[in-house]
Amino acid sequence: MKSLRMFLLIVFAIVLPSTVFAQYGYCTATNSRRGECISTSQCKINGGSSDPANLCPGDNSIQCCTYRTCTNSKGVGGTCQPTATCSGSSDPANLCPGPNHIQCCTSNGGSSSGGNLPGLDATQSRYARIIAKTARDYGLPIRGCEVAIVTAIVESNIRVYANSKVPESYKYPHDAVGKSL
Question: Reduced to 3 states, what is the DSSP secondary structure of residue 38?
Fold first, then answer.
């Protein structure tokens, strides 16, 4: 129980600053680059370019901010974008302008293995990535993704359970067997 509390504290310590960075969510600009909805003045300070095509909520000063192309530390070309919108690999080697969550994103050929996420084992990491991909596919803001993952941690420790009192549940893929309370 103590380790769960510590893990949740770490998750919220990481999550809280990210809500400040993209308080208006993420977007895809007319140049097809993934970006974040922030004020035009902050975008300019960050070294990005604002797209005035009404892609973000809020007044006209909140626009889709995108960043330049980049080459990661392995020599692979990519785009500077928010890590939450990267479906490939992000390189944190300070290759992009702006805050730390803007990193060089490169395609990884569709693979999303990427190793275990901090504090999660391989199974939990796989499910967390499925949750994140689904949230992205539905266009949910990063906060929605974070809430879904934290809920999965609290409710099931990010595992799929079969119910010992429901024999039909054994017919479906599961990681463990639970019981009704």
Answer: strand
Helix (H, G, I), strand (E, B) or coil at 123: helix
The H or E element containing residue 8 is helix 2-21
User: pLDDT tens digits for 58-86?
Assistant: 889 999 999 999 998 888 889 999 998 88
CB atoms within 10 A of CB 7: 15
Q: Tell me, what amino acid is at 10?
A: I
Half-sphere exposure of 141 (CA within 13 A, CB side): 14
In degrees, rounded to 5, the angle at the alpha carbon of residue 99 between the alpha carbons of residues 37 and 41 is: 50
Query: Which helix or strand (DSSP H or E) is residue 20 part of?
Result: helix 2-21
> Per the structure block, which two tokens stand in for 136?
């992205």
pTM, 2 dp: 0.50
Give me the amino acid identity at 1.
M
Strand order in the sheet with 34-39: 26-28, 34-39, 62-66, 49-51
pLDDT tens-digit series, residues 118-158: 777 778 878 888 888 888 788 888 788 888 888 888 888 88
CA 77 from chain centre, in angstroms, equals 21
